[in-house]
Amino acid sequence: MFLALADAVLAFHLAFILFVCLGAWLALKWRWVLWLQLPAAAWGVFVEASGWICPLTSIENYFRERAGESAYQGDCIGHYLTATIYPDGLTRNIQYALGAIVLIVNGSIYLWLLRNQLKRRP
Fold first, then answer.
1. Which of 24, 78, 81, 112 is most buried, with most CB under 10 Å away?
2. Using one digit for the tens of pLDDT, what is the confidence trace for 14-73?
C-alpha cells in the first residue's frame, strides 16, 4: 500500500509541475483556473529560486521508505517519472532558469488575458 501511495504522490507531483508550468493555458478557456494557477506558479518559482525541496518529495520518500524501498527505485511509475522530475545534473543555475521560464510563460499568458479584458471594456 505504501508503494502505491508513493507512486500516487509522484504522479501528482508531475501533474502539479505541469500545472505550474502550463496551467495558464487553461485560464485561456476557464478564467477561474487563474485563482489556482497563480499561487501554484508562485510556489513553483519560490521552490526553484530558493533551493527548497518541495514537500511532495518528502511525502513520497516517506511512503517509499515505509514500503521498504529506497526513494526512486523499483516500480514502473517511479522509474519513468523520477528522471523527469529530478533530472541528473540539476544545478542551481538550471533551477533559476526553470523558475524564470515559469514566470515568462505564465506572465505572458496572463498579460495577454489582461490586455484582452481591458480591450473589451467600454
1. 24
2. 899 889 988 888 988 898 998 999 999 999 888 878 878 788 888 988 998 898 876 554
Ramachandran region of residue 112, left (φ > 0), alpha (ψ -120 to 50) or beta? alpha
Number of domains in the chain: 1
Q: Which range marks the domain in which residue 21 is found?
A: 2-120
CA 17, CA 45: separation in Å to the nearest integer? 11
Q: What is the pLDDT of residues 68-112, one digit of tens each?
A: 876 554 434 455 566 776 777 778 888 888 888 889 988 998 899
Q: Cell match 509522484: residue?
A: 10
Whole-model pTM: value is 0.68
Cell readout for 30 is 476557464
Please, are residues 74 and 3 in contact by the beta-carbon 8 Å criterion? yes
Please tell me the distance from the alpha carbon of residue 11 to that of residue 16, in angstroms, as a whole number: 9
SS3 track for 32-101: HHHHHHHHHHHHHHHHHHHCCCCHHHHHHHHHHHHCCCCCCCCCHHHHHHHHHHCCCCCCHHHHHHHHHH
